[in-house]
Structure formats: C-alpha cells, structure tokens
User: What shape does this take?
Amino acid sequence: MIPYGRQDITQADIDAVVGVLQSDFLTQGPMVPLFEQRVANHVGAAHALAVNSATSALHIACLALGVGPGDRVWTTPISFVASANCALYCGAEIDFVDIDPRTYNLCPQQLESKLAQAERAGSLPKVVIPVHLCGQPCDMQAIHKLAQRYGFKVIEDASHAIGGKYQGEFIGSGKYSDITVFSFHPVKIITTAEGGMALTNDAELAGKMALLRSHGITRDPQQMTHEADGPWYYQQIDLGFNYRMTELQAALGVSQMERLDRYIARRHQLAERYNDLLSTLPLVLPWQHPDSYSGLHLYVIRLQLEKIGKSHREVFEALREAGIGVNLHYIPIYTQPHYARMGFVPSDFPHSQQYYREAISIPMFQTMTETQQDEVVATLAKVLQS
Ligand SMILES: *Cc1c(COP(=O)(O)O)cnc(C)c1O
Assistant: This one.
C-alpha cells in the first residue's frame, strides 16, 4: 500500500533520540527550548511553546485568549475535529463558517456576512480559528481586517502548514494572528511522533501558555504571591495541565527541522508532477493562490462525478483495493454525532457538503518516489476510465 502520508526518519534522527536517552534529561532538559528556538527563528515568531500535541496547543491557546463558558469560537467544518474540540474543552460554544469552494479554507466573505449577522444578534465570536487546509494559507489579511473590526482573536491552525509562506513570510510569523499552532504527528510535514507547538509574538500570551502546559506552576519569584519559602519552592497560580513535550521528541524535532525546507521543495516537485500527469483526467486539481507557498501537507483531488461512471465511494474503494492508500480530509465536523447533537444543519454549509461528496487525498509525502507517483496516476486513470 502506498500511504497518503508517511514520516521520514534518518540515521541522524535516530542518533539524536538515542543521544537524549543516554543523557541526564528525558524531560524538562535543554532540547525542548532548543527546538522551540529553532522553530521560532525559522518562521520568525518571538515565542514558541512546544507541547505534546497540536490538540493541546489549541487548548492552551484558547485558554490563554480567555475563552470560557458563554464565549463563542468559530472555525471551518473541513478540518480535523481538534480544531473545534478546543473550544468545547473551554466550555465555549462552537460554530462553523462554510469553506471557499476554490481553496477549501474558511471563506472570508462567508465569515464577514456571518459576523454582520452575529453583531446584530449580539453573538459575536471571541476567537476564530482558520485552518490552512493541505498547507494552503487562508486569506489571513482579510481575516485580520475582520478581527480588528469585530474584535475577535485569531488562532491559525497551521497543523498542515509548517514551512509554507503567506505573502512571502513564513506561516507562524504571526503577522495577522494572535497565536499559530503546528502539529508534529507522523503524517504531518515534520514529526516528533506526537507533538505540537504554539507560537506568538505576545509575551503575555506566551507566559500564560507556558504556565498552562505545566500544571499552572511557576518557579519565577516575580509571578509568586509572596517571597519563596526556600529554594524548593514553587507556586501553582493557575489550573494547568501536563501537556509537556519530552526531550526525545524535541531532539527528533530539532533533527527534522534541518530538512524542513527540502521537504517542502520536494512536496512542490511532486505536486507539480501530479498537476501535469492528472491534468487530462475528470478531476478538479488543487488551486494554489499565487501569493502563497503551500506547505503541501496534502494533495486533494475532487472528482467530476458527472463525467465519471462511478460513485465517489466506488472510486475510493477501487483505489484502496489497488494498493493506493487514499484518504478523505475531512468529514465535515458538524456531521460528527457529538456535534450533530448540537443542532447543526448540513444545508447551512453547502460548499463543505459538496466538497465532502467529491474529495479524495492521494499520496503525498517527501520520500515518495516518481515510480510510486506513476503508480498512483496510472491506477487513478484506470479506475476513472473503466
Ligand atoms: C493533525 C491535526 C490536528 C491535531 O494534531 P495533533 O498533533 O495530532 O493533536 C489539529 N488540526 C488539524 C488541522 C490537524 O490536521
């Protein structure tokens, strides 16, 4: 089976992790700050907080922005459930903004009209979470403008997008958002096995997230309510979690970061090849915004079903049977039973519904060979034309 995504682990990665195993610190040592610094420097952010998953990063990002009961958070329905779950963890209400049919990202025009309605109803969101689906950046400038006008905060869920650029600047630089989140799950662009990171240019938000990832405990005398009782002393000044990343994970991350730019370049080569080789098939190929450089975590094709004598499901199953590890990113979140119970109506999100009927993620990973890619293309051609 050619998978839709796969990690790349080199001898240098293995040596880095073994080095940590033989060192004094398996957790809370020097590697986590080093990894944070490497990522922050690469993308141009002032602060970076490594955590044990992007899900945890989204949770502490929401909390740091003050999301709580009675607040509203909006995101896109075409994402992994974690993009929405973070709001529910904080006791807030979630709502969705339909996607742009061309980029598959949260649509800024839909956002604007929904905000205008919400303003009249007194139900504006506290936070909006755009997701850079497949690595393609959202229209952050437009979202930022709306954030200023309507007074909400922005968390970029950039789980797919490390190494990508928007208007010439790396995603994570935070020019148009408050916090950006990366995921290092093995199918993502670089991996730490499990892991995530929250980046921000705001020292206060960084401080809050640092507390929240480690029980709400501080050892900083400046933050304590009174002078330390002694050298052993620490204070818990907030209710936090154990969301820490281990030293092994961070060492793997530091080692993977060395290859980030090469990974993205390779993904672009593969995408360009797909664009050529698939151009005559009854498919809609990914549209790329000319002013952005996608991280290309995923390559999503859409079936032109009116030109194909098979259903979406039949095409998907035939590809899997032929050894092509296709996937579907994503099932609209509002259709998940946990969310459907909240009363969402699928017809409110026509573009997401249409996307879900047609989309298939085909294999895209940095170590994919041209032979493997040719096999994907040939199989797809055969399945669509038979
Ligand atoms: C993978 C992913 C997450 C969650 O990442 P974890 O590191 O697995 O917690 C969140 N949002 C999006 C869009 C993702 O793809």
Q: What stands out?
A: Residues 2-257 form a domain with the Aspartate Aminotransferase; domain 2 fold (CATH 3.40.640.10).
